């Protein structure tokens, strides 16, 4: 599906047309308010008072100096490492793009 595919959503008593990707992002923002800035880096910069264009923000993000070195192991592998050193009930509790919250319990 492409971004230019359209979805019709209720807006008060009127109907508004927007891209499906925007509809999805708005749904995620509504369900997880703190995820808004994680999802839209450009919007985060706008909200912070930046005047940089979307293209400039993207260029800075993708040209980050440590981008090539900062490749993490998959969450499943990191959870396996926790199990291997004695953690129990290991799980991934939350995952959003590159951000994951995972852990487990370890008996004393």
Notes on the structure:
- This protein starts with 5 loop residues before the first strand and ends with a strand.
- The protein contains five helices and four strands, in the order E-E-H-H-H-H-H-E-E.
- The protein has three domains: 1-37, no CATH class; 40-67, no CATH class; 72-108, no CATH class.
- The chain has helices at residues 20-31, 36-39, 41-47, 54-62, 75-84; strands at residues 6-11, 14-19, 88-96, 99-105.
- The strands form two sheets. It has a two-stranded antiparallel ribbon. Strands 3-4 form a two-stranded antiparallel sheet.
- A hairpin with a 2-residue loop joins strand 3 (88-96) and strand 4 (99-105).
- The model is unreliable at 1-10 and 12-18 (pLDDT under 50).
- With 108 residues, it is an alpha+beta fold.
Features:
two-stranded antiparallel sheet, disordered N terminus, 39% helix, alpha+beta
């Amino acid at each position: 599906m492409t971004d230019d595919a359209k979805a019709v959503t209720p807006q008060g008593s009127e109907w508004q047309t927007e891209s499906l990707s925007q509809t999805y992002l708005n749904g995620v923002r509504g369900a997880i308010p703190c995820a808004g800035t994680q999802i839209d880096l450009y919007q985060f910069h706008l909200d912070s008072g930046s005047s940089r264009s979307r293209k400039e923000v993207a260029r800075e993000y993708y040209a980050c100096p440590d981008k090539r070195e900062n490749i993490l192991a998959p969450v499943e592998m990191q959870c396996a490492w926790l199990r291997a050193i004695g953690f129990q009930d290991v799980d991934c509790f939350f995952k959003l793009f590159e951000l994951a919250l995972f852990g487990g319990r370890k008996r004393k």
